[in-house]
Amino acid sequence: MNRKKFWGYRRPNGQVGVRNHVLILPTITCATQAAKQITELVQGTVSFIHQHGCAQVGVDYDQTFRTYVGMGANPNVYGVVVLGLGCETHQARSVAGELAKTGKPVEVVSIQDHSGTLGAIAEGSRIAAKMVQAASAQMKELCDFSELIIGTECGGSDACSGLSANPAVGIVSDMLVDHGGTAILAETTELIGAEHLLAERAVDDRTAKRVYEVIGAMENRAIKMGVDIRTGNPSPGNIKGGLSSLEEKSLGASNKSGSRPLQEVIDYAQIPSKKGLVWMDTPGHDIEQLTGMVAGGAQIVLFTTGRGTPTGSPIAPVIKIATNTGIFERMEDNIDLNAGTIIEGKESIESVGQHIFDEIELVASGKLTKAEILKQHDFGIWRIGPTF
Question: pTM to 2 decimals?
Answer without folding.
Answer: 0.95
